[in-house]
């Protein structure tokens, strides 16, 4: 991405001018995302989003009061546009969108956390915001999503803090802290592969047979790490049609082979709040086969793939349908698609969905940068990494 | 803090800057990829719509066509685009300005306006004069929809250029079968013949206006090239990768206008400077150009079916609003007011702000933004653009309805109708099939000879540009202008309607069904089938092909023994044919195939066995009788009943093959033969069935009488059935005398 820095600078210039921004901003963002996603994948998108948000925050001029709210609004502004852009790209358009949303929520969480930290000078704003949220959020949302305990604690003690804040004054710069925290987030995303791979020896044992589907960098590094530790094991790689990133075993042979497999290890697009995973097509089939033979299904995913949304959410439940040309060539079927000589309705309809949803019952373990977790524990992890206010969906009807 | 921040920025961008320097070194060595986009088709196929708006701005699945082309060019790595606008140049430039294409980094769009270009040639000459093209460039028109990656084609082109500087152009083609009946592709373009050298991919011959499907190749081509593939299953995508020499060739040959008809054929035929043209076939990617209403329909459907991914409605590329994909290819914008009882069927796109009334049905259609659709409306296969009002109880089939049209209640649009901007159709009016309605009156045209098309289109566009000021005028002077046109046009599109129905001249009417959004009616297909069959027959008789008629056969047997083998062949053929027909008929009975389809099949059999219509009628009758025989028949009267049901059921089919008395006699002879040989059961009921055939109007009395008189002088054995039918014939004779 040679021109990314330039694009960011341009964006910053526009942000500084702050007029006629709305269109210009979204436009630049869409473009950046289109560029970024080419060959970058989810992790790449996450990184880019974090970097972009860092730039946005660093140029944001803060009013003397209400600093956190100003930052939150700025991040939300950008975030909404990124989400609305539904960027086009390869290979996983809608999942890049999810990961963009995840990072935005993480950053918002960071801002809130920093704002709430005892040295902050504007706890009052936060209280305001929470009451605002209570007032404005639909009751069901408020019921489902409880603010993290830490948050509650601070809310209750905010009166005390207010007096404290006078003592500490405005000595700490909120902005600096936030930027520092985002840097850590970027660092985390960058090293997630190593952190996950480090745990490989605990899971892969000598002479085991492992099955995976498609291609995932996380899985590859995980397996390589085990190999480096002189573990010897076999790996079956199912092809993952129609994209066929893996090549060794046809997808249809998975069931035949699963009985001699000790463990299934797959990479995923996202882990939802209930512990289910969203993964390339074919993985649900593998997981079902594994369940039949009581083979554990292990999911490896960086923490940035944790998504605080449930599967009922339309953002999650909508599948991405790609071009039929990945499955067959239009040229060969051109006579079936001649709308002139039939009654005008297409004779052939080819569906090419991109991903599967695997329910939490079929997942044995989720390995993230910070260790392995049961799917049932994911909701807890999410509470640590996101603020409940930000769970709500972005878009026109978002409760922002 | 400032220092810290800048430090971080540098740290964050560290990798980026290093990469940037690498690329900039690379960049020095290469020229940015340029493209010329012709935002004018220099044709009148989209009249009358294009009188008011340029073709490239017409919405294709709710997004202007030019945005598809630009989005593709952008994603394919083109960095500089020159948009050549001619007709309605202002509107195109305005659109580009509003749609932010100018605001993009690393993708510069420059509009070049001209008012007097009459063809692509003029456009390219103008660009050549401006001296802006520095290297290889992509030449497309603004109505191209594609998702192909240019890298491969470009790489091939550059590689060839390196070896041979005369390889100045690479044409992108794709596979697409042409329909054997209509001789047009799914995009509605004429059958295209291309001769390509399979090794070098050089294009040797290009003919898209072939006469009756015949092509003639130059002998020297065969001597110069070890092998040649002649394709008729390829489609020209009208995406060309050109070297600067293409522009200079246009500049040198000032009479070149059309890219294919003049430039391409000029190079192929006249061998200018030894320039060569190559082809690049794309396999899995999509590329198509919208040339006429048929391709508008086809490409829209391809987009909805996601062949053009990622340029699909639910992915925001540029200029489209957010839309979600539901099951079965239904795309719906986030704000749609749909009644609960309304049914929106598969493969339909509904734009935002549109309301749909109760009990309305929409399928296979595209509905734009801000439309109001009333109750009990049925819309099938239509393209409804923005802000259209359709009142209750309308029925629309395969129509294009432009912006701002008002369709009053109870209107019926027959297939292929085009309603141009702001037309109002009065209550209960039925707009006839393939008619085009516009607020403008049809310009009086000279007969459009093929050669004159360009001159014509140019005047058409001059008209258009002079007319383009009119809509504003219309608004300003609406009281005068509209009332005037209302008075004139009221009768044309119902009471209270506004618009002129454009008449189609006789010559172009024939083409109307070819290039309309409506599917070709089956009757038309049959008709074409017929004419093409007849043409084939004519060709056969003209050429000295083996004779197929009965007379010739007789003469052959009578005169020469040399032809005996031939004769045997013919007889064998007939037997095979008879068996085939029987099998076909059986299948038709079992699977309940329609008569039309059976006719098609029998026709094709007849052609492949090279036989006459009379043989068909004989064979069909034979198979019908056989089928009646195969049904259980305890007594002869049951057999007659069986035969009666079969004959009544397939009367139309048999009648189709009995155009004249001769064929009818042939049927009687056939029946006679059957009774003697293969189906003796019928011999007892011969007269009954003959009577039946007469009653059902399958065989006329004249035929029977002729048959009887023909048999008069025959052997006694042959007269067996004539004697049986004696009474019947007598009765017929008397009846005819009475009539006299």
From TrEMBL, chain A:
Gene3D superfamilies the record matches: Translation initiation factor eif-2b, domain 2 (3.40.50.10470)
InterPro entries to which the protein is assigned, alphabetical: eIF2B_beta_subunit, IF-2B-related, IF_2B-like_C, NagB/RpiA_transferase-like
Protein origin, superkingdom: Eukaryota
Pfam families: IF-2B
Family to which the UniProt record says this protein belongs: Belongs to the eIF-2B alpha/beta/delta subunits family.
Protein name, entry field: Translation initiation factor eIF2B subunit beta
Taxonomic placement: Eukaryota, Viridiplantae, Streptophyta, Embryophyta, Tracheophyta
UniProtKB/TrEMBL annotation, chain B:
Protein origin, superkingdom: Eukaryota
UniProt name for this protein: Translation initiation factor eIF2B subunit epsilon
One of the record's GO molecular function terms: translation initiation factor binding
Domain W2: 571-740
Record-level GO cellular component terms: cytosol; eukaryotic translation initiation factor 2B complex
Gene: LOC113727509
Region ranges (Disordered): 540-565
Organism: Coffea arabica
Matching SUPFAM superfamilies: ARM repeat, Nucleotide-diphospho-sugar transferases
Keyword list, A-Z: Cytoplasm
């Amino acid at each position: 991405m040679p021109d990314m820095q330039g694009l960011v600078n341009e964006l910053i210039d526009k942000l500084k001018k702050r007029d006629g921004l709305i269109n210009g901003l979204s436009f630049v963002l869409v473009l950046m995302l289109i560029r970024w996603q080419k060959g970058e994948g989810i992790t790449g998108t996450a990184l880019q989003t974090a970097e972009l948000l860092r730039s946005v925050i660093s140029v944001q001029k803060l009013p003397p009061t209400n600093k956190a709210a100003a930052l939150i609004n700025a991040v939300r502004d950008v975030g909404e546009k990124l989400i609305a852009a539904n960027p086009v790209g390869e290979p996983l358009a809608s999942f890049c969108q999810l990961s963009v949303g995840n990072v935005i929520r993480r950053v918002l969480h960071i801002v809130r956390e920093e704002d709430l930290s005892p040295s902050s000078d504007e706890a009052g704003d936060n209280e305001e915001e929470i009451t605002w949220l209570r007032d404005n959020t639909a009751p069901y949302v408020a019921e489902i999503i409880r603010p993290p305990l830490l948050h509650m604690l601070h809310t209750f003690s905010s009166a005390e803090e207010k007096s404290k804040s006078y003592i500490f004054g405005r000595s700490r710069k909120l902005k600096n802290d936030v930027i520092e925290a985002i840097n850590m987030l970027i660092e985390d995303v960058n090293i997630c592969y190593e952190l996950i791979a480090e745990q490989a020896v605990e899971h892969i044992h000598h002479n085991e047979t492992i099955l995976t589907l498609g291609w995932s960098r996380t899985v590859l590094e995980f397996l390589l790490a085990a190999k480096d530790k002189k573990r010897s094991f076999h790996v079956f790689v199912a092809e993952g049609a129609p994209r066929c990133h893996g090549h060794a075993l046809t997808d249809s042979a998975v069931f035949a082979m699963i009985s001699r497999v000790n463990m299934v290890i797959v990479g995923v697009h996202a882990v939802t709040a209930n512990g289910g995973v969203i993964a390339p097509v074919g993985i649900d089939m593998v997981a079902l086969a594994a369940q039949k033979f009581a083979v554990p299904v292990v999911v490896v995913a960086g923490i940035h793939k944790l998504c605080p949304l449930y599967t009922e959410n339309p953002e999650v439940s909508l599948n991405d349908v790609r071009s039929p040309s990945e499955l067959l060539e239009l040229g060969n079927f051109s006579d079936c698609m001649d709308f002139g000589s039939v009654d005008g309705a297409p004779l052939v309809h080819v569906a090419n969905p991109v991903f599967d949803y695997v329910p939490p019952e079929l997942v044995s373990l989720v390995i993230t940068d910070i260790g392995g977790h049961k799917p049932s524990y994911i909701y807890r992890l999410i509470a640590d990494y996101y603020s409940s206010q930000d769970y709500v969906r972005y878009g026109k009807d978002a409760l922002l | 803090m400032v220092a810290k921040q800048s430090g971080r920025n540098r740290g964050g961008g560290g990798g980026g800057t290093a990469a940037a320097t690498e690329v900039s070194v690379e960049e020095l060595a290469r020229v940015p990829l340029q493209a010329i986009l012709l935002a004018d088709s220099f044709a009148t196929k989209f009249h009358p719509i294009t009188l008011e708006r340029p073709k490239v701005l017409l919405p294709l699945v709710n997004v202007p066509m030019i945005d598809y082309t630009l989005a593709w060019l952008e994603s394919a790595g083109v960095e500089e685009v020159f948009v050549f606008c001619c007709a309605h140049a202002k509107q195109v430039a305005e659109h580009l300005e509003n749609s932010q294409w100018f605001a993009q980094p690393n993708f510069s769009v420059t509009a070049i306006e001209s008012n007097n270009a009459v063809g692509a040639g003029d456009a390219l000459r103008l660009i050549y004069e401006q001296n802006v093209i520095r290297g290889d460039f992509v030449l497309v028109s603004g109505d191209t929809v594609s998702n192909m990656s240019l890298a491969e084609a470009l790489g091939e082109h550059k590689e060839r250029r390196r070896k041979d500087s005369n390889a100045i152009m690479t044409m992108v083609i794709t596979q697409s079968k042409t329909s054997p009946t209509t001789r047009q592709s799914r995009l509605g373009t004429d059958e295209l013949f291309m001769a390509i050298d399979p090794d070098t991919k050089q294009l040797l011959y290009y003919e898209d206006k072939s006469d009756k499907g015949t092509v003639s190749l130059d002998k020297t081509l065969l001597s110069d090239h070890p092998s040649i593939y002649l394709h008729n299953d390829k489609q020209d995508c009208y995406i060309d990768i050109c070297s600067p020499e293409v522009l200079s060739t246009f500049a040198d040959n000032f009479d070149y206008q059309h890219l294919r008809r003049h430039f391409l054929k000029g190079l192929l035929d006249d061998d200018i400077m030894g320039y060569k043209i190559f082809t690049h076939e794309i396999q899995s990617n999509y590329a198509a150009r919208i040339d006429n209403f048929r391709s508008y329909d086809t490409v829209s459907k391809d987009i909805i079916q996601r062949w053009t991914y990622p340029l699909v409605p639910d992915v925001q590329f540029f200029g489209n609003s957010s839309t979600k994909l539901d099951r079965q290819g239904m795309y719906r914008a986030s704000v749609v007011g749909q009644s609960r009882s309304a049914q929106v069927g598969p493969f339909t796109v509904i734009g935002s702000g549109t309301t749909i009334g109760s009990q309305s049905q929409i399928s296979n259609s595209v509905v734009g933004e801000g439309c109001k659709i009333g109750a009990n409306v049925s819309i099938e296969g239509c393209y409804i653009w923005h802000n259209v009002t359709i009142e209750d109880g309308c029925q629309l089939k395969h129509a294009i309805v432009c912006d701002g049209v008002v369709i009053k209640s109870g209107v019926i649009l027959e297939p292929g109708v085009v309603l141009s901007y702001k037309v109002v159709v009065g209550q209960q009016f039925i707009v006839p099939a393939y008619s085009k309605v516009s607020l403008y009156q049809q310009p009086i045209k000279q007969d459009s000879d093929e050669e004159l098309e360009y001159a014509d289109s140019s005047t058409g566009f001059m008209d258009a540009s002079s007319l383009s000021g009119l809509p504003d005028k219309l608004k300003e002077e609406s009281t005068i202008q509209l009332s005037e046109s209302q008075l004139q046009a009221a009768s044309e599109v119902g009471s209270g309607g506004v618009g002129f129905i454009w008449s189609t001249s006789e010559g172009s009417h024939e083409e109307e069904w070819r290039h309309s959004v409506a599917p070709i009616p089956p009757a038309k297909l049959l008709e074409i089938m017929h004419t093409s069959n007849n043409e084939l027959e004519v060709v056969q008789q003209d050429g000295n092909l083996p004779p197929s008629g009965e007379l010739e056969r007789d003469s052959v047997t009578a005169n020469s023994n040399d032809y005996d083998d031939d004769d045997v062949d013919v007889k064998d053929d007939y037997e095979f044919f008879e068996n085939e027909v029987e099998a076909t008929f059986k299948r038709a009975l079992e699977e309940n195939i329609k008569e039309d389809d059976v006719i098609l099949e029998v026709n094709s059999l007849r052609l492949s066995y090279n036989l006459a219509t009379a043989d068909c009628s004989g064979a069909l009758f034979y198979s019908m009788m056989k089928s009646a025989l195969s049904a259980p028949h305890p007594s002869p009267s049951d057999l007659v009943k069986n035969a009666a049901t079969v004959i009544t059921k397939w009367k139309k089919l048999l009648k189709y093959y009995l155009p004249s008395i001769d064929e009818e006699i042939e049927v009687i002879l056939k029946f006679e033969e059957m009774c003697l040989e293969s189906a003796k059961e019928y011999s007892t009921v011969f007269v009954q069935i003959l009577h039946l055939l007469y009653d059902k109007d399958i065989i006329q009395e004249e035929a029977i009488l002729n048959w009887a008189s023909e048999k008069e002088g025959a052997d006694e054995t042959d007269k067996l059935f004539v004697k049986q039918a004696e009474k019947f014939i007598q009765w017929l004779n008397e009846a005819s005398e009475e009539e006299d």
